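Most newcomers find our protein records easier to grasp once they have seen one. A learned vocabulary of local backbone shapes supplies the integers on the structure line. Here is such a record, shown just as it appears in the course material:
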Amino acid sequence: MFGDGEWLPQRAAGQRDAWRRWIAQVRRPVVVELGAGSYVASVRDFSDDLAVRHGAGLVRINPREAEVPGSRDVGLWVGAQLGLEAVDAVLPAGSPRR
């Protein structure tokens, strides 16, 4: 990936297979995306694809590019730490935090 001589394609394939098994059994996924800009769009494309194909919610945290594709998605125009603190502050008391 990106010319990395240490890239292990068989490991990547195993991780991709595990991902597919996991996403097939998740009911309401939410993507929390930190600092992924449009310059290298692979992370943003992944998040947008999950929202469309799997009905995932999206929380995009980025101080310069926090636009979100859907009306139910949330874009926070702040840095990662401040954004995660804001998300934590609005979660109901006693909710699982993993």
The two ends are 29 Å apart (CA to CA). The chain has a mean pLDDT of 89. The helical segments are 9-25, 42-54, 80-90. Residues 9-25 form the longest helix (17 residues).
